Structure prediction request, 400 residues.
Amino acid sequence: MRRRPDRLLLALYALAVLLVSLLHDPVWLAALLLLALALAGRDAARLLRRSLKAILVFNLAIGGGYAILVGLTGRDPWPTLLLINLRVLLLTFMTFLFMARANLFNALGFSRTLSYLIGLAYSQALAFRRAHDDFHLALLSRSPHPPTLMDRYRASAAAASWFMEKSLHSTRDTAQALRSRGLFDA
Amino acid sequence: MHIPDGFLSPQTWVPAYAICAGLWYVGGRRLKASLDEDTLPHLAVFTALSFVLMMAALPLPGGSTVHAAGIALLAVTFGVWTAFLAVSLVLVMQALLFGDGGITTLPVNALAMGLAGSLTGYWTWRLARRWNEAAALFAAGWLSVMVAAGLVAMVLGLQPAIAHDNEGRPLFFPFGPAITLPAILIPHALVGIGEGLLTLLGHHYLTRLRNKHF
Prediction:
């Protein structure tokens, strides 16, 4: 029952992304950002913080470089910086808002194979990400001194070999699970 | 190597989506044609493997990031289409489920990393392995990174020429290729060494595991 709203949200999100990419007026972009904040309601502050955190490093690096480069030529870098930063912030905020409001697995439900694939890959990725974090914490907690570069290389090699072995076994396990649930039955 | 959202003009990402959609369709058809109890989990699990390999990313001043990707490893071990689809899925998951990367930049990243990177890695290995298998695998990893990074740098560097206002001010990514090419390629030449080693050691390890257990 939720699939239709999720697909509609996906279509609206795609249209909004195209629209924002075609706008080059900072006033319009700022107005749309305010509208998106209003649509986010109580989640606005949390999503805005998350968006700012996601773009901060890139935008500071690019913005800083551009301001120096253009400033040296005597031109004003701020109109360009305002436009680019507003657009990047708005697009990122819209993506987080879409993620908060829609279920991607339902939105992609028009293709059974794609839905299964995303679901399987996502669950595996979550498990692998947890394992990756565990490996990192294990290295830190078991090193009396900060780990050297060689320690990090060794730990990375051990983790990579574990991930590869786990991948091969997971493939076999998942295949058996899908077969037992009749996914490949005609 | 990911390009964040908002730095590519629609003149770039809309045609890139059109090309990518065609390639995803072809890849999907090939996948469906061989759909059995192994294909789907195989692709899903190696998508997750590629995802975890891409997790450690460092930002670059040129507007991008460096990280190992395992693209050549996937391409030489499982084929170009599997690698392309796996990398595309990783980018979709990163953009829409983990909030990392961008939706407008997804097709360019998929074409550069998933397709060009996989093709370069696979054919370097195929053509060079008759002389020396280990060198071929290392070169496959290094070249796959450099070609993908070079394409990303070119696409970013072309943005000021593609989209600018009447006064010549850039509307999207503000630096030309004179800045993006060295800013992205020089660090990736080092990352490529890690990718080459990952391809060499990972391929041997995966082949040994497959022979041992499957």
About this structure: The helical segments of chain A are 3-22, 26-40, 44-72, 78-101, 104-107, 112-141, 149-180.
